[in-house]
From TrEMBL:
It holds the Pfam family DUF2489. Keywords: Coiled coil, Membrane, Transmembrane, Transmembrane helix. The chain crosses the membrane at residues 6-27. Residues 113-157 form a coiled coil. Residues 15-147 form the DUF2489 domain. This is DUF2489 domain-containing protein. InterPro entries: DUF2489.
Length: 164
């Protein structure tokens, strides 16, 4: 065997070794990306579970008459906007009565800002809110029952496990 053949064999062995190592590194990178995606998915599930727990509480309180439907509409519309992933809901489409009430009352001052309003303006807002609540109340209660059923199984079905 001549020197050229030996060098060619050594070069081929080095190339095969480097290719194998590159393949190994690519496999490790793929595993790392899959693990990162699993962690992201788990974080979304945990976050959604916290949101759904709050949604369930608001729905229950409103259905039982312990929470004003206008306040519930504002809180639910806003909190459901934070849901991520496959559990995200188009609130305007799925819950039209609650969404309609939200859009009616969302810009009305609340708390201290409401107290600082002129009495006539405050009464005008109250009348508009009360009319909308009376008109939409039954539909909203049905939507809240549906929403509560939608989030309850999701909240209970979260499988939290250690991902390694």
């Amino acid at each position: 065997m001549n020197t050229f053949t030996l060098l060619a064999i050594a070069g081929a062995i080095i190339i095969v070794g480097l290719a194998s190592y590159a393949g190994y590194l690519l496999l490790q990178l793929k595993k790392q990306k899959e693990l990162q995606q699993q962690h992201r998915d788990l974080a979304i599930q945990k976050r959604n579970a916290n949101i759904f727990e709050s949604v369930d509480t608001i729905c229950l309180a409103t259905i039982q008459g312990q929470c004003d439907v206008s306040e519930a509409a504002i809180r639910l519309y806003n909190i459901m906007d934070y849901v991520q992933g496959k559990d995200r809901v188009d609130f305007d489409e799925r819950y039209p009565a609650t969404s309609e009430l939200y859009h009616i009352v969302k810009d009305m001052p609340r708390g201290d800002a409401r107290q600082e309003m002129k009495k006539q303006d405050r009464m005008r807002d109250n009348l508009a809110r009360q009319k909308a609540e009376a008109r939409l109340n039954d539909a909203i209660i049905e939507e809240l029952k549906d929403l509560q059923q939608k989030v309850k199984p999701l909240n209970n079905a979260i499988d939290i496990k250690l991902v390694s």
